[in-house]
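Researcher: Please translate sequence to structure tokens.
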Amino acid sequence: MTAPTEAVLDAFGLSEPAVLLPGGQGETWRSEGIVLKRAELESSWRAEVLDGLPESSEFRVARPVRTRDGEWIAFGWEASWLLPGATDTGRQDDVLTAGAAFHAAVADLPRPGFIDERDDPWSDGDRVAWEERSIDGSPAYQEVVAPLVAARRPVELVAQVVHGDLPGNVMFADGLPPAIIDWPVYWRPPAWAAAVAVVDALCWYGAKPDLAERWSHLPEWGQMLVRALIYRIATDELAQGAQVWTPAHRAAYAPVIELAVPSAR
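Model: Translation complete:
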């Protein structure tokens, strides 16, 4: 947990020492009304998009902050305005509704080149889900993922830039639209992004199975659930290896796999 240096703060015109914020994997800091975090491969692209996005009555975004020199990144850090609100993983229908509005707003953006350059467990797990790469994985991984792989079949849906991790990255504040933050950019159908949010809610946030039913109007819904599960399961394997497959971890996935596989037929 290395705080942004004085040089970073000065680059963004800040004078107050940075304070660590809760969440953000211990890497998100605040100085005055500005949030700072380590820049990523897509940071400059994302900042340009969010800076130019029109205001919406359906969602908010954290507008990026330029440096004194007009750049989006300084010494490996990026900045955005702090938004009022707090995440609520129990409001999954609201999360999904806000995500749908956001995806509609960015639907016409071209495919960014950094998608092909990323090399991390999440990007590779996504590629595994869409049959763009394969992994052998541990025997436990192979056992967990087998029914999903067997249920997967080709689909024809239009891809676009989407938010790949909605549930814990939508904030709510009274009297304001939901705020979408911490955008991990993927190039997939919007229905897949919704399916990832539903799968996460069912596995980890106590959602009931009828959440999946309420969003089953989305195209190729069963196949999107299958791919969302393969994505998360493959990412777990790539990030943590065989030790991740404890009885409790497998039990979190099991009922969701049982729900998804029949719907994919």
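Researcher: Any highlights?
Model: The CA atoms of residues 121 and 240 lie 9 Å apart.
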